[in-house]
Amino acid sequence: MSDQPKVMQLGGVSWNTMVYLERWPESPQGSGPASGWQQALGSTGAGKALNLQRLGFEVHLHSLLGSDSAAKQICDQLLQAGIHCHWQQYRGASEQHLNLMLPGGERRSIFLEQEPDFGEVDIASLAPVWAACDYHWVNIKPYCRRLLPALQAFGKPIWCDLHDYDSGNPYHQPFIDAADYLMASAENLADCDRFMQQQIEAGKRLVIVTDGGAGLRAMDAQGQRYHVEPAPGIELVDSNGAGDAFSAGLLWGWHQRRPLLECLQLGACAGALCVTSRSLASEQLDIETLRDWHRRYYA
Fold this sequence. Notes:
This protein is of the alpha/beta class and 299 residues long. It has one domain: UDP-N-acetylmuramoyl-L-alanine:D-glutamate ligase (3-Layer(aba) Sandwich). It has helices at residues 44-54, 69-80, 123-132, 142-153, 173-178, 192-201, 242-255, 260-275, 287-297, and strands at 6-10, 14-20, 36-42, 58-65, 84-89, 96-101, 107-113, 135-139, 159-161, 181-185, 206-210, 216-220, 225-228. β12 and β13 form a beta hairpin. α1 (44-54) packs across α7 (242-255), α7 runs antiparallel to α8 (260-275) and α8 crosses α9 (287-297).
């Protein structure tokens, strides 16, 4: 691996309208003022890419992209951040979300526009970049499902974040089958420990379940379990992108060959930094700040 590690991200960009509320309307027909709103780059591929770039990775991002004004906003922000973008463009609206946010981190997302489910993607153009990268993240977008057999044929380990996976959902199964390293949210998992055990027994190298204020749990290929409490006393501003920031901090520690517990703690620090900002990647995030937060909260 190179001194500057290379990461390939597949899938997951959008242009989001973020509306901040003090509380949900009290009735289905209720109304009230927003405490603020903004438009910003969103989705999990962009979130991981921005956080990884701030930690010194050379980041390559492949995604579908429309032909509208939102596409230009998405493209401009990622290029300005130094992300190497590999677009498969289509005519029409880029993916756009409306996110309603409460101060405690609760979120409701409405998909205003969704990217099409492409039947064919130019895998030949992806192959040289995929082969050159040290780490490979596949996000759970419909078009990425169609790429999985070809990506597995390259023989490179695959990392995948299942997000709010609910056990038994057939949509996620191809991603689970293809991945070597798995992340998931505890939100819809009936039994997190059982899920981790099943996946390790199925041959996964690492399984991580994040659970917001309850911290995170993980299991490695030897069956050893880990638990990391969240960093205390963090003021939550916006929870968007916290899971993507976590994966970036984890991967930075992993590339540095730190012990797994420390990698998980570094991920927790990156996630905590993210929620202090309304950006997908905290303006404060860099390697020195990540190390400092780890010393402060976990050393």
